[in-house]
Write a structure and sequence with these properties.
The structure is a single chain. This protein is an alpha/beta fold and 357 residues long. It folds into two domains: 183 residues, Glycogen Phosphorylase B (Rossmann fold, 3-Layer(aba) Sandwich); 168 residues, Rossmann fold, CATH 3.40.50.2000. 45% of the residues lie in helices and 14% in strands. It is built from 15 helices and twelve strands. It has a six-stranded parallel sheet with strand order 2-1-3-4-5-6. It has a six-stranded parallel sheet with strand order 9-8-7-10-11-12, sandwiched between helices. Helix 2 packs across helix 15, helix 8 packs across helix 13 and helix 11 packs across helix 14.
């Protein structure tokens, strides 16, 4: 089964129902929640009847409740859903699955050891336990060629069953009307955790006079380290850790920011970079993991360990905003096409057909 053959499959051949694990859309949805929502909205256009499985009153952000959802409630919901296939969208798979499984593996950070700060039980559950379940899936969807290579390095899987489908970006980003404000504003979107590497941008900000940095995303203990760094550099007043923002406020920042940064050391896909490209905002990204694949030459790629280079790039964009905005506008249409949910849904629907038939 090749990527080409999947892309060419006609969506009119699909006529079955698929249960979609949608619990990550409850509460403070991060990248996986955005992925699941976008897929659900687009699948009907690909000829798939999607049945979302979720319990709005059940908090998915506590580990014990996540396990109960994955291993007890999700299988029970799937069993009564009247569907022929279960798509596990967050990488977690039931030990006893009542239906054939397709699973999306967004990254293998837990197997790579990047989440070494997490408790041992979480590292086991999201690492080796989940990897064993992936072996039993009919098909495994990955967000990027980078993640496919990583997965096949760590898990013994038939490469033919591992299919790359780049996620889509919500169409609202394509509809943003850019209106940068008078103050230089640097936007960094993503959970404030160590692998997202906000520290390199904070250190670079010290060499960019007058610029403001807004970090959008749920905090982790790493945020405290970033705050200490900012205080040591004397730039605390120029940094805002905004936490989770409602969509309207986030879109407003994409519209008014001078540039966006994606400094992550490790990304299975890199939603922040893809959203910035689709929004037409000048972007600076790390030369790391899947970001190279997502950016595809449409923005500067820098070492995640060189704050001097990040400061130079940020000053260059701020100092030549008209040229930077023009370049971002030129690459915008191509990014919107690359990261359309219509394309992603059609390719995902073809994976479903392979899994069922």
């Amino acid at each position: 089964m090749t990527q080409t053959s999947i892309a060419k499959t006609s969506s009119t051949q699909f006529g079955f129902k698929v249960a979609i694990d949608s619990q990550q859309t409850v509460g403070t949805a991060t990248g996986i929640g955005a992925y699941t929502r976008g897929l659900l909205d687009a699948l009907s256009g690909a000829g798939i009847s999607a049945v979302p499985l979720r319990m709005p009153q059940y908090d998915p952000w506590r580990f014990d409740r996540r396990v109960i959802w994955d291993q007890v409630l999700l299988p029970l919901c799937a069993l009564g859903s009247g569907t022929q296939l279960l798509h596990c969208t967050s990488g977690s798979v039931p030990l006893l699955a009542p239906l054939p499984i397709v699973v999306t593996v967004h990254d293998v950070a837990w197997l790579r050891g990047i989440q070494s700060h997490a408790p041992a039980y979480a590292r086991w559950y999201f690492g080796s336990f989940s990897a064993q379940r992936w072996r039993n899936a009919r098909c495994v969807i990955v967000d990027s060629h980078f993640t496919r290579d990583e997965l096949l390095t760590f898990v013994a899987l038939d490469p033919e069953r591992v299919v790359v489908v780049h996620p889509g970006v919500d169409a609202v980003f394509a509809q943003i009307a850019r209106r940068p404000g008078p103050q230089a504003l640097v936007l960094c979107v993503g959970t404030v955790e160590r692998r997202k590497n906000a520290a390199v941008v904070i250190e670079a900000l010290a060499s960019v006079p007058g610029a403001m940095l807004v970090c959008v995303g749920p905090p982790t203990p790493y945020q405290a380290e970033c705050e200490v760094l900012a205080e040591r550099l004397g730039i605390t007043s120029r940094i805002r850790f905004a936490g989770y923002l409602e969509p309207a406020e986030l879109l407003g920042l994409y519209a008014t920011a001078t540039l966006a940064v994606a400094p992550s050391r490790y990304e299975g896909f890199g939603y922040a970079a893809a959203q910035a490209l689709c929004a037409g905002i000048p972007l600076v990204a790390a030369r790391s993991s899947s970001l190279i694949e997502v950016v595809q030459g449409d923005a500067p790629l820098l070492s995640p360990d060189e704050p001097i280079a990040w400061g130079d790039a940020m000053r260059a964009i701020i100092g030549a905003q008209a040229d930077a905005n023009l370049r971002a506008a030129e690459v915008r249409s191509g990014a919107i096409e690359r990261f359309s949910w219509q394309r992603a849904a059609a390719e995902t629907a073809a994976v479903y057909r392979t899994a069922v038939y």
